[in-house]
Structures are given as structure tokens and as C-alpha cells.
């Protein structure tokens, strides 16, 4: 995959080919491994890919002829990296399938999908697809929200989805020349907008919360507010809300994420953002870790590398130009 945490902002590359075997290799290199089948009735084949990076966000334009692209269960299972992607159709048609849903997209429409699970694109006509890719760990959707948000058609021209769509199109049309820290903030803030869009899209019209839903929301708010406490864990959250640990786990199961996994993910995300913030460049990595509930530097470093692929020190150096 072209994208990597800490990629230099603004760099652009383009690849064009008329060979189908070369096309499959290009897609595998620039994105993830896919099983691709082109329409054999076509006399000629052609495809182009253009990529740029804004820190850990990769923005791409992919154009070709009729074909089906599948991320099979075996291909997804064999890949140790997971990404969240948005696919926006700008020419031709596209049908995205994932998590039991099917989204039919035309010009300006887009949908969210994840590479860690099987998906299928059916792309028709002389098509172009704009693809926006974040490392999965950098996006705030929990597993349950993601499983309900994929393969849903979103209108890139109206409402909140229109605002997000316009921002995404602008990033590809003219990738901004930014400092590494500025690029990281743009990538994060765009990812936050995508998260907000997905959650709002799922929520639909406001309704009265059932008691258990209200309790879960209180628990999630409590976790967010106490991330700096090294003692935060299932027992502490359950105790603060006068429920059993078993009941706590049962409620969190509806989010698709365990209590400990949510705490760890949010702590790492706060640390990642601070390490890319030039205003905190003088803070030792140990202080950043402790500020967000990691009292042991070795444990923090292992967790950070597992989530983002590099050590905290390397990540900071890449983003702050050290």
C-alpha cells in the first residue's frame, strides 16, 4: 500500500497501463490485494491511478473500464493491515457490497467500506472512482458502528454528506502543501468528519432512548472523561455506574467493542495526535503516554507500534520533521 503513517504531504504519482496483469499489480501495490475480473468482451483494456498523501490519509483517483473487484475472505484474512476507505463515483457507475448491504452509486455518490472484511465493487462504463484511505486505527468508528455504516449510499452534493464530499473532492483536486503537523491535523479532522457523518447517518430521526441505551451512553462518556486514569477498566466503569461487570460487558457488546479495547484505542489516538502536534514537541514521549493512562513506556510503545506500524518516536519525527 502506498499509504503509510507519516507519509509526506502533497506528493503525487500517476500510473497508466493497457495491460490487465500490470493493472492488478498496480491496484495491489497502491491499495490492497483484490481479485479483479475485467469484462472480456472489451477489445482493449486501459486503467490509470493517481495518488497523493496528506499525512496518513491517501487520496486517489482510479479510472478504468467495466470490471468487478473482490476483497475475498482469504485476501482480507491474509493482510495484517486494515484500512477504512471511502469510494466516490465521479464517472460511470459503481455498486458496492459489504456487510450484507448493497449501495448503487452514480456521479457524486459515495460510500464507506473497510478492507479488513470482504467487499465487492462492480464498476461499469468508462468509470472513475475517487478513493480516500485512512489506517483503520486512526478513525473513531467502533466496530459496531462500522459494521452498520458500510455500503450505504451517501449523496456527495447535499446536506452534511455534501459538505464532506466537497472537502474530499478538494483534497484530491489540489492536495494542500502543508507542514507535516498541519497535514496530520487535516487528515485527522477529515476522518472525524467522516465519523460524524457515519454516526449521524445511522442515527436517523431522534428518538427517546431506552434506559439501557441511556446507561451505555453515560458509560461511554465516563470512559472518554477518565482516559488519563491508569486504573480505568471494566471494574472501575461498572462501579461508577452501580452495575455488575457482567452487565457492563453485555452493554458494551452492542458497540462491537470491548471496554478494554475502547479504552486502549482512545488512549492511543490521543497520544498519536499529541505526538504530531508541534505545540507539544517539547513533551517527552513518556509524559505523553502517562498523560493518557500509560504509566509504562514499554507497554505504550508496543501498543502504539501495533496500532500504527511505527514506534512513537519515529512517528513524531516523521510528523515534526525531526
Automatic annotation (TrEMBL):
A Pfam family this chain is assigned to: HTH_18
Occurrences of domain HTH araC/xylS-type (ranges): 217-318
Cross-referenced SMART domains: HTH_ARAC
Stated name of the protein: AraC family transcriptional regulator
Gene Ontology molecular function, alphabetical: DNA-binding transcription factor activity; sequence-specific DNA binding
Keywords from the named record: DNA-binding, Transcription, Transcription regulation
Record organism: Pseudonocardia halophobica
Amino acid at each position: 500500500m502506498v499509504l503509510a503513517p507519516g507519509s509526506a504531504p502533497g506528493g503525487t504519482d500517476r500510473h497508466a497501463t493497457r495491460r490487465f496483469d500490470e493493472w492488478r499489480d498496480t491496484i495491489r501495490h497502491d491499495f490492497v490485494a483484490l481479485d479483479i475480473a475485467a469484462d472480456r468482451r472489451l477489445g482493449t483494456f486501459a486503467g490509470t491511478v493517481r495518488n497523493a498523501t496528506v499525512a496518513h490519509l491517501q487520496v486517489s483517483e482510479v479510472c478504468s473500464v467495466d470490471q468487478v473487484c473482490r476483497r475475498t475472505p482469504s485476501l482480507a484474512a491474509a493482510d495484517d493491515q486494515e484500512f477504512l476507505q471511502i469510494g466516490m463515483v465521479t464517472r460511470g457507475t459503481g455498486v458496492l457490497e459489504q456487510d450484507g448491504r448493497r449501495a448503487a452509486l452514480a456521479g457524486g455518490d459515495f460510500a464507506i467500506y473497510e478492507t479488513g472484511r470482504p467487499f465487492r465493487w462492480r464498476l461499469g462504463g468508462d468509470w472513475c472512482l475517487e478513493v480516500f484511505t485512512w489506517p483503520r486505527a486512526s478513525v473513531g468508528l467502533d466496530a459496531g458502528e462500522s459494521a452498520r455504516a458500510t455500503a450505504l449510499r451517501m449523496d456527495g452534493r447535499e446536506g452534511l454528506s455534501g459538505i464532506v464530499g466537497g472537502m474530499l473532492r478538494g483534497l484530491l483536486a489540489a492536495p494542500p502543501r502543508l507542514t507535516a503537523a498541519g497535514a496530520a491535523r487535516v487528515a485527522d479532522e477529515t476522518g472525524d468528519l467522516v465519523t460524524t457523518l457515519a454516526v449521524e447517518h445511522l442515527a436517523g430521526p431522534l428518538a427517546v432512548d431506552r434506559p439501557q441505551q441511556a446507561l451505555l451512553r453515560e458509560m461511554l462518556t465516563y470512559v472518554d472523561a477518565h482516559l488519563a486514569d491508569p486504573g480505568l477498566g471494566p471494574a472501575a466503569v461498572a462501579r461508577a455506574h452501580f452495575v455488575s461487570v457482567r452487565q457492563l460487558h453485555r452493554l458494551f457488546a452492542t458497540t462491537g467493542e470491548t471496554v478494554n479495547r475502547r479504552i486502549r484505542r482512545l488512549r492511543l489516538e490521543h497520544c498519536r495526535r499529541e505526538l504530531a502536534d508541534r505545540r507539544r514537541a517539547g513533551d517527552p514521549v513518556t509524559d505523553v503516554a502517562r498523560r493518557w493512562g500509560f504509566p509504562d513506556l514499554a507497554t505504550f510503545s508496543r501498543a502504539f507500534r501495533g496500532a500504527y506500524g511505527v514506534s512513537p518516536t519515529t512517528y513524531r519525527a516523521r510528523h515534526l520533521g525531526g
